[in-house]
């Protein structure tokens, strides 16, 4: 459904960064109570990571991990989603899936809430790197991916979401939120289109 006046193209900027949102074992391992269907996105993120590293554009990961002292800060979120307590700091559930493990030079930002910007240095990191476009991958589409896309826009960045590189535990929520992101906050495009863009950035 297209509504006139919505869904314009923000387009790609000159300097992108790749964000891998919450692709931890707590979300990718089917044994976790927070698991999403992420087998496809894992493979697509691997392609994007390879291209981003070759082009030497910034790559940043996020995780969600709660220390005992964090439970007060995030109490309202935890009350709403009690399964979040699975993500205990120091546990395997807070570790990035080893299939797309970060390099030593790639930051892994810990967050307590949905957006990768809230309570983290992501905005400062991107600004320092001269970034104007944030490629957002990971999980879940209806939660942390959407929240990050909204905040990216509000921080002055161009959000781009590669459709095949995000996932959710609810297929209907996945599609509805991709629609909303594309209509109001960022551009939802194919992984192939993002790879072409990264290659063009690499070529200069």
What are the SSEs and their pairings?
Layout: E1 16-21, H1 25-28, H2 39-55, E2 59-64, H3 70-73, H4 75-80, E3 108-111, H5 122-128, E4 133-139, H6 141-154, E5 158-162, E6 166-167, H7 171-185, E7 187-189, H8 191-203
Parallel strand pairs: 1-2, 1-4, 2-3, 4-5, 4-6, 5-7
Describe this entry's structure for a reader:
α6 links the parallel β4 (133-139) and β5. The chain is an alpha/beta fold and 204 residues long. Strands 1, 2, 3, 4, 5, 6 and 7 form a 7-stranded parallel β-sheet that branches. It is 39% helix and 16% strand. The chain has helices at 25-28, 39-55, 70-73, 75-80, 122-128, 141-154, 171-185, 191-203, and strands at residues 16-21, 59-64, 108-111, 133-139, 158-162, 166-167, 187-189. It is built from 8 helices and 7 strands, in the order βααβααβαβαββαβα. The model has no long low-confidence stretch (mean pLDDT 96).
Keywords:
single chain; 204 residues; alpha/beta; seven-stranded parallel beta sheet; 8 helices; 7 strands; 16% strand
Compact overview of the structure:
Helix content is 39%, strand content 16%. It contains eight helices and seven strands, in the order βααβααβαβαββαβα. The mean pLDDT is 96.
């Amino acid at each position: 459904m297209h509504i006139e006046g919505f869904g314009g193209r923000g387009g790609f900027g000159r300097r992108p960064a790749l964000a891998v949102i919450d692709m931890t074992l707590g979300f990718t391992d089917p044994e976790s109570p927070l698991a999403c269907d992420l087998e496809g996105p894992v493979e697509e993120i691997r392609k994007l990571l390879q291209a981003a590293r070759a082009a030497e554009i910034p790559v940043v990961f996020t995780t969600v991990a709660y220390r005992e002292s964090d439970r007060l800060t995030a109490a309202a979120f935890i009350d709403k989603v009690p399964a979040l307590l699975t993500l205990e700091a120091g546990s395997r559930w807070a570790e990035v899936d080893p299939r797309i493990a970060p390099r030593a030079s790639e930051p892994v930002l810990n967050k307590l809430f949905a957006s990768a910007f809230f309570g983290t240095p992501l905005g400062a990191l991107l600004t320092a790197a001269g970034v104007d476009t944030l490629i957002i991958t990971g999980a879940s589409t209806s939660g942390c991916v959407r929240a990050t896309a909204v905040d990216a826009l509000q921080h002055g960045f161009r959000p781009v979401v590669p459709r095949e590189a995000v996932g959710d535990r609810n297929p209907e929520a996945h599609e509805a939120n991709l629609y909303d992101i594309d209509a109001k906050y960022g551009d939802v495009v194919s992984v192939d289109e993002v790879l072409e863009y990264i290659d063009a950035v690499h070529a200069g």
